[in-house]
Amino acid sequence: MKQNLKLVLPSKKYLKEWLTFQRETLKKLPLNDLDRIGYEKHIISSQKPLYFKWLRDDRLGINLEKGMVQQTIWWGMVGGKIVGRISFRHKLTPTLRKHGGNIGYAVRPTQQGKGYATEMLRLVLKKVAKLGYKKVLLTCDDSNIPSWKTIEKNGGKIVKKEKVDGELSRFYSIKLR
Ligand SMILES: CC(C)(COP(=O)(O)OP(=O)(O)OC[C@H]1O[C@@H](n2cnc3c(N)ncnc32)[C@H](O)[C@@H]1OP(=O)(O)O)[C@@H](O)C(=O)NCCC(=O)NCCS
User: Which atom in ligand 1 lies closest to the alpha carbon of residue 119?
Assistant: First the structure.
């Protein structure tokens, strides 16, 4: 149940679960080549000893690779199982303004349609508001109905629709209180 969902910071304790989550996503989601390569790379890097240090550095905004911004990732957990992941990018770059925005998320293919994305976004917006942010930008493909419904259910107002790399995208703003 989505009421049982908790956001936790990545921890070694759940590494096996995290790998299962990623492998399942890679196998079952219809990903484009770029996303598939991203997942494959992530699966490899998450088994490296420095993985949790990298995530911590990203969270603190230190030792960032060129072009990367401070980013906090949470895992959405229900009863010891990772059902989704959500990340908050603390700053916007020109690239993120075009594609990605401040917040990105995914729900495990077998766990979709249960309200988990909507709940993860609701919880992250509360955290981000506490950090002092007044609004966030989210982008998604016009064809990604579950994603834009998730955004709209959390107060997202559409700012514009625009083609990005040949794909029609929606740009949303969510005001935080
Ligand atoms: C987008 C995504 C995170 C949604 O996760 P989810 O947990 O299934 O979403 P929710 O259960 O919170 O549902 C949100 C809304 O989408 C609707 N929805 C869910 N799956 C749907 C589907 N396959 N078709 C149409 N609507 C769908 C839900 O019914 C709900 O709307 P409603 O309350 O009006 O009925 C998930 O589909 C996913 O991981 N997709 C791949 C990664 C991705 O696209 N991330 C977003 C990048 S912008």
Answer: 12
Question: What sign does the dihedral 93-94-100-103 (CA atoms) show?
Answer: positive
How many Å apart are CA 152 and CA 35, to the nearest integer? 24
Alpha helices in 46-172 (DSSP H): 51-60, 94-98, 116-130, 145-153
* Ordered domains of the chain (ranges, CATH): 2-175 (3.40.630.30)
Minimum CA distance residue for ligand 1 atom 43: 106
Report which protein residue has its CA nearest ligand 1's atom 14: 150
Confidence tier at 35 by pLDDT (50, 70, 90):
confident
Q: Is 38 in the pocket of ligand 1 (CB under 6 A)?
A: no
150 CB within 6 A, ligand 1: yes
Nearest to 103 by CA among 157, 147, 146: 147
Q: Which of 113, 1, 94, 92 is nearest to 104 (CA)?
A: 92
Q: How far is the CA of 61 from the centre of ligand 1 (A)?
A: 30
pTM of this prediction? 0.94
